[in-house]
Specification:
The complex is a heterodimer of chains A (336) and B (747).
Chain A lengths: L1 H24 L4 E6 L3 E2 L3 H9 L4 E11 L10 E4 L3 E2 L8 E8 L1 H9 L5 H20 L6 E5 L7 H16 L4 E7 H4 L17 E5 L18 H9 L9 E6 L2 E6 L5 E6 L15 E6 L2 H10 L8 E5 L3 H4 L4 H8 L2
Parallel strand pairs in A: 1-3, 1-14, 2-5, 3-6, 6-7, 7-8, 8-9, 9-10, 10-14
Antiparallel strand pairs in A: 3-4, 11-12, 11-13
Helix pairs in contact in A: 4-5, 7-8
Chain B lengths: L1 H19 L30 H13 L4 H10 L2 H11 L13 H8 L3 H21 L11 H10 L13 H14 L3 H11 L6 H17 L3 H10 L13 H11 L5 H21 L11 H12 L6 H14 L3 H9 L8 H18 L4 H24 L2 H8 L14 H11 L5 H7 L3 H18 L4 E7 L2 E6 L3 H4 L11 H7 L3 H12 L3 H9 L5 H14 L3 H8 L4 H4 L25 H18 L3 H19 L24 H20 L3 H10 L3 H7 L4 H9 L15 H4 L14
Antiparallel strand pairs in B: 1-2
Helix pairs in contact in B: 2-3, 4-6, 6-7, 6-8, 7-8, 8-9, 8-10, 9-10, 10-11, 12-13, 12-14, 13-15, 14-15, 15-16, 15-17, 16-17, 18-20, 18-22, 20-22, 21-22, 22-24, 22-25, 22-26, 25-27, 27-28, 28-30, 30-31, 31-32, 31-33, 33-34
Classes of the chains: A alpha/beta (336), B mainly alpha (747).
C-alpha cells in the first residue's frame, strides 16, 4: 500500500512539473489581431487567415475620440469620430474586444473644462456607445474593452481619471478594461517613474511594440520596430511592476519619403511601394519599412515571462500586408 | 526633539513674516470680453410671424383659452415629467403636475377634459426628449431596437386612428405621427405617410412643419436637392444646417441660401465669443495662440463683404476684424473696420464697432497728444454708456453686484459691457492703453483714465445702500461707494485694482502731479475726470508720500504723509509692527499711528545732521542711523516704501528687488563705510560698531572704551556679544554685508 502511495505521489509530482513546462512552452493563451479600419468588411481570405492561425481574439477599433467641435448649439469637450461602419457582423465564434482610440487633444479639451463631473459623464457616454455598437454588431458576451491613447506626463492625470470612471462602470458588468502602453510611456511607470502602484486604471495592459522609432528622422533605420530601440526599455522591464500584460507586434509596412534635404515629406502606403507612385519625385528618398521578423522575434525573446492568460496580438488585419509574411513567420510570432 | 524644535522655530518665523506680509493683489481685466455683434441680453422681439407665436395663437383658437402667456409657458417651459402628470390627471389618476398645476392653460384643458390636446402635447414633449438624446454625437443609431425607439413607438399608442381625422387636432396628430416615424428611421413609411396624409392637412403652419420632416427624410436618403427646395420654400434656413455642422459649414450654407438670414449673427457671435475667450487665455499665458486655423470663417466673412446681396456688411466687417485681431493682425483688422459705411449695422453693432476701433487703435497707434485726446473722448463716451447701463440694472442685480466686495471681481456681467470693455482696453496688465500712455509720458492722463475705468462704477453706485457695516465702532448704513471704508480692519479695494498697479509703477513726481490736478484741476477735462474717479485725499497723499520714501526724498514724503488721517492708516491692511531703526526684526514699533510720517521726519532730520554738522563723530553716527533706516525701509520694514510683500502680482513691485531697493542697499553700505572712516574717536567708533551689533569687533578693536567696558559688564561670555540675526533678514542687516569681517571667527 505504501508503495502504491509513493508511486501516486511521484506521478502527481511529475504531472505537476510537466504541466508547468507545458504551459510555458505552449505560448500565449490567446492569439489576437487588430482590425484598424473605418469599415469592417473583412475578405474571405482574411477570415480564412484568422481561422488558419487559430486567432481567437479580434480587437476592433470602434471609433476615435477627438475634441468636440462647436456646432453652434452644443459645446462638447470630446466627440466620437470616424465611427467604424459594419458591413458584416462580427464573428461570434471568437472573442471580440472593442477598442476606442482617444486623441491627446481630446484629453486636453477635457482638461480645459471647468465641469468637475465631466470625466464621469464622458465615461458613461463612452461605455454606453461601446455597448450599443457591440450589441448591434456582435452576438457574443462582452468581456473586455480597450482604450488606446498616446498620453503624456501632462495629460496622464486627466486620462487616468477618465479611465478610472470607465473601469468602474465596466466592472459593474464584469467587463475588464485594458489600456495600451507605448514604450515611451514605460518611462513613467514603476518605482523609478512617476506612477505609483495602483495608479494604472487598467485590469490588463497592452504593450505596443511598434512605432518605436522617430518616423520623420532620416537617420532612423526602421521606425516601425527596431529591436535596438526597444531593448533599453525591455532591459528595465522588471522595474515597472506592471499588471497582467498582453503584447502587440507589427505586421505592416510603409514607405517614408524624404526630400533632397532629408526633410520628411509623407508616408506611402505599402501597396504602392513597387512601383513607386508618380507623386514621388526622382530626387526623393523613400525608406521602406516593415515589421521585420528578426526584430519581432528578438523583442519577444527579450520580454520577460508573461502571465498564463496573455494574448499575443498582431497589428493589423489587412490582406495586402499579411500576404508578405509566411505561414511559419506568423506561427513563430504567435508561439510566444 | 531637535526636529520638533526646529519645526516650531521655522513655523514661528514664517508666521511672523506672513503676519505683516499682507497687501494688495488683484484680478486682471484681460478676460473681459470685447467681441460683440449682438447683445447677450438681447432677445428677439416676439413677432407674429415666427412659428412659436403662430403655434401659440393656433392653440389658443383650438382650445379656446385666451391666456397666450400661460399657453407659451406650458408648451415651451413645461417638462416631460409635468406633462406626463397632466396626462395621468386628465385620465382620472392622481399625480403631481408641478409648476403646470397652477398654469391657467393646463387648468383649462383639465376643466374641459380636453384629452386630445393633452395627448398631442404629452406626445410632443416625449418626442422632444427622445430627440435630445438622439441628437447627441455620442448616440449610436444601431438600426436595432433600443429604449429610445421603444419610447417613440409608445407615442403612436397615444394616437388613435380616428384622431388623424379629428377636425380640431387632426393636423397636429398627423405632424406628431410623421415626426415619430422620421425619428424611428422609417424613411419609406414616412414618405408613404406623407403621401397619404399630407394632402389632407388643412392648416398651413402645421403642413409646412410636417413637410420639414419630409425634407429631412430626403436629406437622410441623400436627395439633398429635394430637401433644400422644401426648406427654402418654407424660408427655413435653420434646417438647412445639418446637425453637428461646424460653425463655418453652417455659415456657408446659410450665407449661400439666404445672405441676410437673422441666423447668421447668432452663429457669428457664438464663434466670436469662443475666439475672444481663447485670446484671453493666451494673454494670461494659459495657452499658446492657435495656429491660423480660423481661415475658413475669415474667408466666409470676406465673401460676404464682397457679396452684393449681403445687406449687413457692417456685421461681416466687424467679424472679419475680430478674427484678424485674434490672429495677431490688429492693423489689418483696423483697416477692414474703417471700411464700414457710416451708419452701417444696428445701434448695438455701431457701438461695438466704435469700441473695437478704440481697442485696435490702442493696440497699434503711436501714443501722442492727438491720440491721447481721442482716447479721452472715447473714455468719456464709454462712461456715458456705463451710466445708462447702471441705471438699467434691476435692483436685485445691483444688490448682487454690490455684494462683491472687491470691484475687480466683477466679471461676466454682460449687463456691464461698457465697464468690462473699458477695463479691458485701458487696464489690461502692461498692454492696456493707460499703461502705454504712462510709458509715452502722459502719466497724469493715464492715471485719470485708469481711475475712471476702475472706479467710476463706485461713483455710479454711491446711492445704493447695501448693508450695515461697523465703522470705527459704530454701525452705519453703507453704500457701495464707501463700503470698503466701513470695515475696521480690511480694505477690499484701494490696493487691489488696476489703477493702483499702474500707479505703483510710476515715479512720485507723476503721481504728485496727478494729486495736484485732483486738487487744482486744469480745465473742464480734469474736473470731469475728478468727478468720475476715486479722489480720496488720504489714499493719494499716502501713495505720493510712500513713493517719495521709495525715492529717499524724505522732506517731500513728510509733506504728503502729514495729510493722511490716522483713521485711514488703520484701514491699509498693513500692520506697521517693527521699529524701523532696529537691527532685530523682533523689536516692535512703539507707535503705529503716523508711522510713515515719523520715519520720514526722522530720516530728514538725520539728513540735515549729515549735511550741516561739522562734528565728524556726530555726523558719522547720523550716517550710521540713516543707513539702518534706509536699508530697513526696503527690507524688514517694506511697508514704508511698498504695499505688499510675499506674493506679488504680475505688475506690482517687489520693492526689495526693485531698482529703488538695490540703490538703497548699496547706498546704505557705502554710508556705513564712509561713516566709520569719518569718525575721529575710538569711543564713537565703538558706539558705531555696537549700534551695528558687531560687539565682537568692539571688544577686539576698542577694548578700553567705555562702550566695551559696558558690554563686558553686562555680558558674561563672548558668545553673548554676537547678535544672531535670522537668515531671512540677514541679507542687508548682517554685519558682514558692510565690509567688516566677522571677527568672532578669529576669536
Amino acid at each position: 500500500m505504501k508503495k502504491v502511495r509513493s508511486i501516486v505521489i511521484v506521478l502527481l509530482f511529475i504531472a505537476m512539473l510537466s504541466g508547468c513546462d507545458k504551459r510555458q512552452g505552449e505560448g500565449p493563451a490567446h492569439r489576437g489581431i487588430y482590425h484598424w479600419k473605418t469599415t469592417y468588411d473583412p475578405s474571405d481570405w482574411e477570415l480564412q487567415w484568422m481561422k488558419k492561425h487559430k486567432v481567437d481574439r479580434l480587437y476592433v477599433r470602434l471609433f476615435d475620440v477627438e475634441p468636440g467641435a462647436d456646432n453652434g448649439y452644443d459645446d462638447w469637450s470630446m466627440v466620437p469620430v470616424a465611427t467604424t461602419r459594419f458591413n458584416q457582423a462580427l464573428p461570434e465564434d471568437i472573442d471580440v474586444v472593442p477598442v476606442v482610440y482617444i486623441t491627446v487633444d481630446a484629453i486636453r479639451a477635457l482638461e480645459k473644462s471647468t465641469d468637475y463631473c465631466l470625466s464621469w459623464r464622458y465615461a458613461k457616454m463612452l461605455v454606453d456607445r461601446i455597448e450599443s455598437m457591440m450589441a448591434a454588431h456582435w452576438g457574443g458576451e462582452l468581456r473586455e474593452v480597450q482604450l488606446d491613447c498616446d498620453w503624456t506626463s501632462s495629460t496622464r492625470a486627466i486620462y487616468f481619471e477618465l479611465c478610472h470612471e470607465v473601469k468602474e462602470r465596466l466592472s459593474e458588468k464584469n467587463i475588464i478594461l485594458s489600456g495600451t502602453l507605448r514604450l515611451h510611456q514605460l518611462n513613467q511607470v514603476g518605482p523609478r517613474g512617476l506612477l505609483y502602484e495602483g495608479e494604472l486604471p487598467f485590469d490588463r495592459l497592452l504593450l505596443m511594440c511598434y512605432n518605436t522609432g522617430r518616423l520623420q528622422d532620416l537617420n532612423t533605420e526602421n521606425s516601425i520596430l527596431d529591436f535596438n530601440d526597444v531593448k533599453p526599455y525591455l532591459d528595465r522591464y522588471h522595474y515597472y511592476n506592471l499588471p497582467n500584460c498582453d503584447v502587440a507586434y507589427p505586421i505592416y509596412g510603409w514607405g517614408v519619403a524624404f526630400d533632397e534635404q532629408g526633410n520628411f515629406v509623407k508616408l506611402i502606403n505599402s501597396h504602392h511601394l513597387t512601383p513607386l507612385p508618380d507623386s514621388i519625385e526622382r530626387d526623393m528618398y523613400v525608406r521602406k519599412e516593415w515589421g521585420r521578423k528578426d526584430d519581432i522575434v528578438k523583442t519577444q525573446k527579450a520580454l520577460p515571462e508573461l502571465d498564463s492568460e496573455h494574448t499575443t496580438i498582431l497589428f493589423h488585419l489587412d490582406s495586402l500586408n499579411l500576404a508578405n509574411y509566411r505561414y511559419e513567420d506568423i506561427e513563430t510570432f504567435y508561439s510566444r | 526633539m531637535k526636529t520638533l524644535r526646529l519645526f516650531i522655530a521655522v513655523s514661528l518665523l514664517f508666521s511672523a513674516v506672513s503676519a505683516a506680509a499682507c497687501g494688495p493683489w488683484y484680478y486682471s481685466a484681460a478676460d473681459n470680453r470685447i467681441y460683440y455683434i449682438e447683445s447677450p441680453l438681447w432677445t428677439p422681439p416676439a413677432t407674429d410671424d415666427d412659428f412659436e407665436s403662430q403655434n401659440i395663437k393656433l392653440w389658443s383658437r383650438q382650445t379656446k383659452c385666451k391666456d397666450t402667456a400661460a399657453i407659451r409657458q406650458a408648451i415651451y417651459d413645461g417638462t416631460l415629467g409635468e406633462w406626463e402628470a397632466v396626462y395621468l390627471v386628465i385620465k382620472g389618476h392622481k399625480a403631481d403636475m408641478g409648476a403646470l398645476g397652477k398654469n391657467k392653460f393646463v387648468r383649462h384643458l383639465c376643466k374641459h377634459k380636453d384629452i386630445k390636446a393633452v395627448k398631442v402635447l404629452y406626445g410632443s414633449k416625449k418626442y422632444e426628449y427622445i430627440r435630445n438624446v438622439q441628437r447627441s454625437p455620442w448616440y449610436y443609431d444601431s438600426h436595432l431596437d433600443n429604449d429610445e425607439k421603444a419610447e417613440l413607438r409608445s407615442i403612436y399608442k397615444l394616437i388613435d386612428r380616428d384622431y388623424l381625422n379629428d377636425p380640431l387636432y387632426g393636423d397636429r396628430f398627423k405632424l406628431l405621427a410623421l415626426k415619430c416615424s422620421w425619428a424611428l428611421g422609417n424613411d419609406a413609411v414616412t414618405l408613404l405617410m406623407w403621401e397619404k396624409l399630407g394632402k389632407t392637412m388643412k392648416n398651413e403652419l402645421l403642413h409646412d412643419a410636417t413637410e420639414d420632416y419630409v425634407a429631412r427624410t430626403f436629406e437622410r436618403a441623400g436627395v439633398q436637392r429635394l430637401a433644400d427646395s422644401i426648406y427654402l420654400s418654407h424660408g427655413n434656413t435653420v434646417e438647412l444646417v445639418p446637425d453637428g455642422s461646424s460653425t463655418p459649414t453652417a455659415l456657408n450654407i446659410i450665407l449661400q441660401l439666404d445672405p441676410n438670414s437673422p441666423e447668421l449673427s447668432s452663429y457669428l457671435q457664438r464663434y466670436l465669443t469662443r475666439i475672444d475667450k481663447e485670446q484671453a487665455a493666451v494673454t494670461y499665458g494659459c495657452s499658446a495662440p492657435s495656429e491660423l486655423k480660423e481661415d475658413s470663417v475669415q474667408m466666409i466673412a470676406r465673401q460676404a463683404i464682397a457679396n452684393p446681396k449681403v445687406k449687413n456688411k457692417a456685421m461681416w466687417r466687424y467679424a472679419a476684424a475680430c478674427i484678424l485681431d485674434y490672429k495677431g493682425h490688429p492693423k489689418e483688422a483696423l483697416a477692414i473696420l474703417r471700411g464700414t459705411p457710416n451708419g452701417g449695422g444696428d445701434a448695438f453693432l455701431r457701438r461695438s464697432t466704435r469700441v473695437l476701433t478704440l481697442y485696435l487703435r490702442a493696440k497699434t497707434e503711436k501714443i501722442d497728444q492727438k491720440f491721447v485726446d481721442y482716447s479721452v473722448g472715447e473714455a468719456r463716451w464709454l462712461a456715458k454708456e456705463m451710466k445708462k447701463e447702471w441705471n438699467m440694472l434691476s435692483d436685485s442685480l445691483k444688490n448682487e453686484i454690490s455684494h462683491i466686495r472687491c470691484w475687480q471681481w466683477i466679471c461676466g456681467y454682460d449687463e456691464l459691457y461698457s465697464y468690462n470693455v473699458m477695463r479691458r482696453i485701458f487696464l489690461t496688465d502692461s498692454i492696456g492703453l493707460a499703461w502705454r500712455m504712462a510709458e509715452a509720458g502722459y502719466g497724469v492722463r493715464a492715471l485719470q483714465i485708469a481711475n475712471l475705468a476702475d472706479n467710476y462704477i463706485i461713483k455710479l453706485s454711491d446711492n445704493h445702500v447695501i448693508d450695515s457695516c461697523r465703522r470705527f465702532g459704530k454701525w452705519e448704513e453703507a453704500s457701495w461707494g464707501y463700503y470698503y471704508k466701513a470695515y475696521e480692519s480690511e480694505n477690499y479695494h484701494d490696493y487691489c485694482n488696476g489703477l493702483f498697479a499702474l500707479a505703483d509703477r510710476m515715479g512720485a513726481k507723476t503721481i504728485e502731479d496727478y494729486l495736484h490736478r485732483l486738487k487744482h484741476p486744469k480745465g473742464t477735462t480734469d474736473r470731469w475726470f475728478n468727478s468720475h474717479g476715486y479722489t480720496s485725499k488720504d489714499y493719494w497723499e499716502d501713495i505720493v508720500g510712500t513713493h517719495y520714501l521709495r525715492e529717499q526724498n524724505y522732506a517731500k514724503a513728510a509733506q504728503h504723509l502729514k495729510q493722511v488721517s490716522p483713521e485711514y492708516q488703520r484701514l491699509m491692511n498693513i500692520r506697521f509692527c517693527r521699529d524701523a531703526f532696529a537691527l532685530d526684526y523682533n523689536t516692535p514699533s512703539y507707535d503705529s499711528t503716523h508711522y510713515k510720517l515719523h520715519f520720514a521726519q526722522a530720516m530728514d532730520s538725520l539728513r540735515q545732521v549729515i549735511l550741516h554738522y561739522k562734528d565728524k563723530d556726530r555726523k558719522g553716527m547720523a550716517m550710521i542711523e540713516y543707513s539702518i533706516g534706509l536699508a530697513n525701509s526696503f527690507d524688514m520694514c517694506w511697508y514704508l516704501t511698498s504695499y505688499q510683500k510675499g506674493w506679488v502680482g504680475a505688475n506690482l513691485i517687489d520693492i526689495g528687488e526693485s531698482k529703488y531697493g538695490k540703490q538703497a542697499f548699496s547706498k546704505a553700505k557705502k554710508l556705513r563705510a564712509e561713516a566709520l572712516k569719518l569718525m575721529q574717536t575710538d569711543e564713537t567708533k565703538a558706539q558705531a560698531y555696537a549700534r551695528l551689533a558687531m560687539l565682537s569687533k568692539v571688544m577686539h578693536d576698542y577694548p578700553f572704551t567705555a562702550t566695551a567696558q559696558h558690554y563686558a559688564l553686562v555680558c558674561d561670555h563672548w558668545k553673548d556679544y554676537r547678535v544672531t540675526i535670522p537668515p531671512s533678514y540677514s541679507r542687508t542687516l548682517h554685519p558682514s554685508h558692510f565690509l567688516l569681517p566677522d571677527l568672532s571667527q578669529q576669536w
